[in-house]
Write a structure and sequence with these properties.
Its cofactor is Zn(2+). Belongs to the creatininase superfamily. Keywords: Hydrolase, Metal-binding, Zinc. The structure is a single chain. By secondary structure, the chain is mainly α. It folds into 2 domains: 1-46, no CATH class; 51-138, no CATH class. The protein is 48% helix and 7% strand. The protein has 6 helices and 2 strands. The protein has a two-stranded parallel ribbon. Strand 1, helix 2 (26-38) and strand 2 (42-46) form a beta-alpha-beta unit. The two termini are 21 Å apart. The model has no long low-confidence stretch (mean pLDDT 94).
Length: 152
């Protein structure tokens, strides 16, 4: 990331926002934190965990972010909204919960689900997916304003 930041800074770009479609990507969060600590540009990561939480609430997602980890209510709603044919047949009855996943980074998701689902896709709707993405699109402006103001 520092190479990218240095390269774009040489071109006169003073701010960078990394758009992350993976809700739990802590590695990118650490990279952005390092860029802001050591320059040469101001950086932001979007959406942050809190942005996802706010979008879930705005859309009426009822599953918690912990129980709705992969292919659950949130992700299935988004896919139903924008590419319904990409949702596997049987999603309405594919709910699978896996509460304690403390060894996920060691064992991988396969240790906790055979199907890839950890969550409740049965609660998904295209309307919820549209609402999540609409909220995220509108709220991105706050970070854009913050990062660009800090870069000036």
């Amino acid at each position: 990331m520092s190479d990218i930041a240095s390269s774009i800074a040489r071109q006169g770009i003073r701010a960078l926002i990394i758009v992350n479609g993976h809700g739990g990507n802590y590695v990118l969060a650490n990279c952005v934190q390092e860029l802001n600590a050591h320059g040469p540009i101001r950086a932001g990561l979007y959406p942050a965990r809190e942005d996802w939480a706010d979008a879930r609430k705005a859309a009426g997602i009822v599953s918690s972010s912990h129980e709705d980890m992969h292919a659950g209510e949130l992700e299935t709603s988004i896919v139903l909204a924008y590419s319904p044919g990409a949702v596997r047949a049987g999603w309405e009855s594919a709910d699978h919960l896996s509460g304690d996943r403390r060894y996920l980074t060691t064992l991988g998701i396969g240790a906790y689900t055979n199907s890839g689902v950890i969550g409740r896709p049965s609660l998904a709707t295209a309307d919820k997916g549209n609402a999540v993405l609409s909220y995220l699109g509108q709220s991105a402006g706050r970070l854009i304003n913050l990062v660009t103001a800090q870069a000036d």
